[in-house]
Specification:
Number of domains: 2
Oligomer: single chain
Structural class: mainly alpha
Shape: extended
Length: 141
């Protein structure tokens, strides 16, 4: 396995934190915590950067709430600042993990590979090759 050094400084690079903030706000732009963070975005990102650089950044308390659709579940949501840090971290490590995955790993990644896994599943189930070829050709049209 290849060894990666000096990744931590990339996590707290301002451009990466800004990208993390943009990703964290997707679908939450009008929520109060997102709006409050974005009102003073530069200051908040510089604070996070300083905390990460000094290694004094501590995760905040999770907010717990219930949802009832499609069934009752207890959700624990990280504070918005922590979600920005999560996205910044993933921006750095996801490309490394994606390269390390085997070619037929259909785990969630940047690429939507749900349909790509279908022919492989059919092979593993032992379906005859002719049916597999027909299924692949049907998927192309």
């Amino acid at each position: 396995m290849k060894r990666y050094c000096s990744l931590y400084h990339r996590v707290y690079a301002f451009d990466n934190l800004l990208s993390g903030a943009r990703k964290a706000q997707k679908g939450k732009r009008f929520k109060a915590n997102c709006r409050n963070f974005n009102l003073d975005l530069e200051k908040n990102l510089l604070t996070i950067k300083r905390q990460l650089k000094d290694k004094t950044c501590k995760p905040g308390p999770y907010t717990r709430f219930k949802i009832y659709e499609p069934k009752e579940r207890l959700i624990s949501a990280a504070p918005y600042k922590d979600r920005v840090v999560h996205h910044a971290l993933v921006n750095v490590i996801e490309p490394i993990f994606d390269r390390a995955m085997i070619y037929d790993s259909y785990a969630p990644s940047l690429l939507p590979l749900t349909h790509a896994s279908l022919p492989w599943c059919q092979v593993m189930r032992g379906e005859p090759e002719r049916e597999l070829r027909d299924a692949c050709q049907a998927g192309e049209s």
